[in-house]
Every structure is written in C-alpha cells, then in structure tokens.
Amino acid sequence: MHITVLLTIFYILNSIRVRVGPWKFFRVNSRYFSREKGIFSKLEIDQLIPERWHLRQGFDGDHIEPDAYPVFLKPEWGQNGNGILRADSAEQLADIRSGYAEDNRRYMIQEAATGEREFEIFAIRSGLEGSHHDMITVTESVNDTDKYPINSVNNKQTVYLERTDRFSAEQLSILSGYIQEMGDFAITRFCARADDEAALTAGEFKIVEINLFIPFPINLVDPRYTWSQRIRFINKAMHLLAHATRNMKYD
User: Which terminal CB of the chain, N or C, has fewer other CB atoms within 10 Å?
Assistant: First the structure.
C-alpha cells in the first residue's frame, strides 16, 4: 500500500514538472482498451502475443475439455492474480465451473506453461512510438511450494527477487525488442515462463499474461530493497512515465 501511494505521489509531481495533466495517465495504452467491453480484455490482449510465445487459451463459455492438466481459469479482467483458479483434473475443472456458473464475469481457460522459472518483465517507454524502452527490470517469482503456483503479491508463498543485474545492456535491449513485437506499449509488465535467464533472452519462453492497466513494478517488493532504493527507483520510473504520458499519441 505504501509503495502504491508513493508511486501515485511521485507520478503527480513529475507530471506537473513536465507539464502534463496527471489524469491523462488513464489514457496511456488506450489503443489496447476494449471500448466494447469497457475493460482491458485479457482475451483481446492475448491476441497480440506472437505464436511462438503463445499459450493456448480462450473463452471458457463452451466448456471444451482440455487436452492436458493443469489448466488455469482466469477472469477476463483482473490484476494481481485475483480470481485465478487452477484445475488439476477434469473433476476439479467441473467443480470450478459450477462455482462460477452464476458469476457475471467472463472466464478464460489457459494451458500451463512448462518453463521451470517464472519472470516478470516491467518496462517503460518514455519517447514517441517505436522508440526503445528507457527502463526494463526483470524480476523472478520464486515459489517452491508448487510446480504450478498462482503467483501474485497476494500469495504469501511467493517471493519476488529482482534479476536485472544478471542481464547485460545488450540482453535488456533484446527483451525490449520482444516487447515491441507484442505492441507499442508506453508501460507494461508481462509474465513469462522460461527455463532460465539464457532461455528468456533467447526468446525461448511462453507468456502467461500481459498487464497494461496500471502495471505495478513488481521488483519493488523484493525484500532486499531498502526504502531509499525504492524511492530512487520510483522517482526515476514516474519521471519516465510522466514523459510517456506527454509523448503518447492518444486514440
């Protein structure tokens, strides 16, 4: 909560500094907002993912039986793992489906990624369309309690450890290029599963999810961070985001 408050305060201060209305933040990445549904639809954003990184998923309305387990059931809109459920068998899947039968939300069903490790890549592009990303962090979600955990800041078994210093400037540039293959995002955080850092850099991964609406820089919850480090990072990130807000072409 404290980090979210600091992000908001520093964003407003930096927006004033670069002379852009802070309220325009909610129009950042607006081209990917589903006006028909009134949300950042995970199902529509999923269609941006190139085939080599794509996990099979779709609307669960037809109750199609999966080829293998586990599978994940996810609300079409949501953040921080809220509402995500895992089914390890046909019986569990049937139970989950009966539980949300009266739910008005649309659910997606997604196959499990097989990579050994889970990474969260956070990026900000402050310049005009097509420019490189000015900030990229790579954070690993560490959870040894389960082979297929539902990681989130709400999962007390998950620890987030920043791994950015294990990547060279060239490797981070490669990751920036991968993000640009998916879309021209001003700010994003995407979750990918890969066997290790080398596989991630080589593009040998599967994307679990792309977050475009208020993506949280998950590296800030690394327990090794001091509050001084967090504040320095927040100020830099929100300065870049304020520039991104000013430079973004809005639809």
Answer: N
Measured between alpha carbons, how far is residue 43 from residues 34, 55, 59, 218, 245 in Å?
10, 12, 7, 23, 25
| pTM of the predicted protein model | 0.91
DSSP symbol at 185: -
Question: Considering Cα of 172, then 51, then 143, then 77, what sign does the dihedral take?
Answer: positive
Peptide bond into 70 cis (omega under 30): yes
DSSP three-state, residue 74: strand
pLDDT tens-place string over residues 77-136: 766 667 788 999 999 998 888 877 666 678 888 999 989 999 999 999 987 666 689 999
Q: Residue 98's pLDDT is what? A: 82
Inter-CA distances, 93 with 80, 104, 206, Å: 22, 18, 23
**H helix runs in 27-122, sequence order:** 42-46, 90-99
Decide: 205 and 115 in contact? Cβ < 8 Å. yes
**Count of Cβ atoms closer than 10 Å to residue 248 Cβ:** 24
